[in-house]
Amino acid sequence: MSPPNSSLPTQEREENALSDNGERLNTVEEEANAHLSPAPFPRTRLELNRQVWNLAWPSVLTMLLQTINSLMDALFVGHLPNAAEALAATGVGGGIIFLLVSLAMGISVGTTALVARFTGARDEASAIEAVGQSLSLSAMLGLVFGIVAYFSRDLLVNLLLNSTKNPLAAQLCSQFLGMALLASLPLFILNVLQSSFRGIGDTRTPLLLTLAMVGLHIGLNFLLIEGRFGFPSMGVRGAGTAFALSNFWGCLLFGLALRRSPLAHAYRIENLRPQLEWVQRILKIGIPASIQAIMRTLSMMAFTALIARTVEGAAGVAALQIGIRTEAFAFMPGFGYSVAASALVGQSLGARDPEHAERCGWAALGQSLIVMVVMGVIFYLFAPGIAAIFTSDLHVRQLGVDYLRINAFSEPFIALGMVLTGALQGAGDTVRPTYITLISMWVIRMPLAIWLMFGLHQNSQGAWISMCVTTIVGGLMTLWLYKQGAWKKVKV
Known about the structure:
Blueprint: H1 7-15, H2 27-32, H3 45-77, H4 83-120, H5 124-151, H6 153-161, H7 167-180, H8 184-199, H9 204-224, H10 236-259, H11 269-272, H12 276-308, H13 314-350, H14 354-381, H15 383-390, H16 394-407, H17 411-426, H18 431-455, H19 459-484
Helix pairs in contact: 3-9, 3-13, 3-14, 4-5, 4-6, 4-7, 4-8, 4-12, 4-13, 5-8, 6-7, 7-10, 8-10, 9-10, 12-13, 12-18, 13-14, 13-16, 13-17, 14-16, 14-17, 15-16, 16-19, 17-19, 18-19
């Protein structure tokens, strides 16, 4: 395959960007890149913080919409006749879907890093080609992984739910996945489209389009799960159908929005035609990020299995769900500032200003820390009331209170991990953060949890302590990695 059309011109543009003692780019190039206009670099700390906030808050609201969507899923399914089995089915099915999302990140993270870098360099041609190549790659991998997942869904369900012991839950999960996995292709493409907008610093368009997606998803859940207004009662199959249709709808909306963006020419055939060098360039950044997400998912699955084997058993697992659902509201600001850091760091490096890139990362972290410290205080002080919202079981409630109060101390370190990892990903440095995930969640967390839970007989409280300790360790390791500054020299 031929090399990317713009790779040599890009290098030449970079080498000749400042000619005649620092004069601007020549007129032809300025006209070629006139549509791609990154925001000007702030001159004061206040302006920088305002720029970070303007990028972060739409992403925070986008995450809020997705959290509400998840809660509404559980609410609708929880009213079915076999609620326990239906919730287990959609929960396990959702885990399999998230594994697909983790695989899709192998492309989307690379897309964000490349588009942000080219946006900062005002290199519209390369940004457009990066998006076109990412779309083609996502379509191919979406088809491959989607087909594999679809035809192996019964095997996966049996491994995760044990169809002999839980036959109804396994049957319902297979029904859910039979519909939901039909959206594997748009799911992969959708992730790339969202990442493209983030790369150019547009977080408001994804917010508005996610609102339209979530609205359709919730509406279809209302109509199809129990069968209202003449629609058939489809149960968990209706939940899978709602998921699939909302992803097709979202893919269409984002695809149309891209046509109205500076990246519209990504749809041209010459940009969509796969080129090996571009594929390698995207996956070099994205595969470690994908592996990192998969390791996190598998770690939580194994961690849950350990808690299920403590004295508390199911009560401990239920308390874990209370803690995770509550912490989802703390993850929202972390996610928003992670997106802001990723875009601004990538754009700053593209503009050959690594010092400003570092300041962007610190500014995003500073704002996130304020929010996360407040969230930690809320979790600690109001833990009993929060746990009571989820359950009336006094035992589960107390275990949930212990989770929230112990892990409240780790909330600021979640900000360190999420925001600075986003900054590193924006720079294209995705390999070393993956090692941090491996060390903190597998090398330290799992052995520490086993020792505390079973060696010292701390049971679920030992699990909460191991979570808190390893979250702190992971955050500090990410801080150290960011301060080293090697990410400033990463080539994408």
